[in-house]
Amino acid sequence: MVGDRSVRIFVAMPFSTMGEHAPWSDVDEIRREFLGPISQEIGKRLGSSFELVIEDEETSTGNFHRSMFLEAIGADIYIADLTGANANVYLELGVRWALRDGVTILICQRAGDIKFNTSSARVILYDKGPAVLRGAIESVTKAAVDGFEDHTLCDSPVRDGLPLVEISRDELEDLKAQIERLKAEQAEDLVDMAVKLDLEEAVNVLRSAVDRNPVSFIAHFQLGAHLTKSGRYAEAAEVLEKATRLDPLSSQAWQELGVAYSKDGKLDEAAAALEESLNLDSGHYETWSNLGGVRRRKSRRGGWIADWGELQKSLEAYEKAVAHKPNDGYAQFNAALLDLTLTLHEKRDDHAAIERFRKLEHLCRWEVLETPGDGWRRLNLSGTLAVLADKDEAVAEVRRLWQSTPDAAKKSYSDSAIPPLRDLLQTGGLTPGQEDAIKAVIAALESQ
């Protein structure tokens, strides 16, 4: 039983003549007495309505052959009448065999019209004689019904034994879309999973997420950020470059790319990426802090300040960060340190710059109390105390940091904290107590 679905039966046959040697040449009579009863009986046995389409009755507009070839794949039951050895019928049969496993039924009035490789296939002979006609109707009907109900049937000599299946273009595109959706969902699941893992495991999981969905922005962004944290800066930059191509309007992606470039020593590229991030979101304080750090590094040559104009730009970036987040000790400390460095370099009165550190001390102490495990907060406090000439407590803060920091992470702290303190010493305008305290902090940082 097929139920409500209509069964489409298509007959490929000569248009107007069955050929000069055909015993039964009246085409209309063949349709009425032979093909019509076959269709009715097929519908009856399948318990379904049916649609009989005979070749020259096809009314589709456009290219005629195109409509014929569409029937070759679309018809549920395809009957090819080989009478007269019509070339078009043979062509269409070949297309049907190439595109569909079944159901394809061959009929013919004369065995002599069975040509080429159809001679090895089953062909049902018919003519207008009553006994032969009844037998042919029954044979075609049975072949059609049995074939239609047998979903494993392959009566195509072309497709038989080949690892092929039939699928429409619409179905294929729908499957592709479903696969892409599943890949995206799997990638998102892996991204979510990575949050709960340690750094190296997270990197491996995020690589899988990128492999499963090569166009996932979030997978690329998270992988790049984790690679930066693990110290693989060049690889991180490559992944984050892809992230910015996937979403060029993501200020976070440009910021993270700038950080990776900076860590990899590509300072011009880092500044450009961070500036692009700020073009998209000018209010992000962390990006301003990142840009301040990059410009401070760009000001140095051979470990010393060579471009004081670039250092001034660094201060301006940190001041922007302070403006957007006044209670952030990191941006406050770096801005204060640069302010004092430039003040002493230009031989101006440093009273206001030192007073800034006195106020900053309270914020730094509070942040250390609130987040004792944050090493950067402790370094801010240590540097502030050194500028205020409190050598012993400044060094003690570094020692407390080293006690709670894994050896693998110590170098990152010292590499970031020592150069700005040396820049300040370079000015030559410090008091002996300040110089002594800052040198002691540098020595403590170098002892890791």
SSE inventory with pairings:
Blueprint: E1 7-12, H1 27-46, E2 50-54, H2 64-74, E3 77-81, H3 87-99, E4 104-108, E5 123-125, H4 130-149, H5 169-194, H6 199-212, H7 217-229, H8 233-246, H9 251-263, H10 267-280, H11 285-298, E6 300-301, E7 304-305, H12 308-324, H13 329-345, H14 351-370, H15 375-387, H16 391-403, H17 407-426, H18 432-446
Parallel strand pairs: 1-2, 1-3, 3-4, 4-5
Antiparallel strand pairs: 6-7
Q: Please, could you describe this protein's structure?
A:
The protein has three domains: 7-166, 3-Layer(aba) Sandwich (Rossmann fold); 174-282, Serine Threonine Protein Phosphatase 5, Tetratricopeptide repeat, CATH 1.25.40.10; 318-448, Serine Threonine Protein Phosphatase 5, Tetratricopeptide repeat, CATH 1.25.40. The protein contains 18 helices and seven strands. The protein has helices at residues 27-46, 64-74, 87-99, 130-149, 169-194, 199-212, 217-229, 233-246, 251-263, 267-280, 285-298, 308-324, 329-345, 351-370, 375-387, 391-403, 407-426, 432-446; strands at 7-12, 50-54, 77-81, 104-108, 123-125, 300-301, 304-305. Strands 2-1-3-4-5 form a five-stranded parallel sheet, sandwiched between helices. A two-stranded antiparallel ribbon has the order 6-7. Helix 1 packs across helix 4 and helix 12 (308-324) runs antiparallel to helix 13 (329-345).
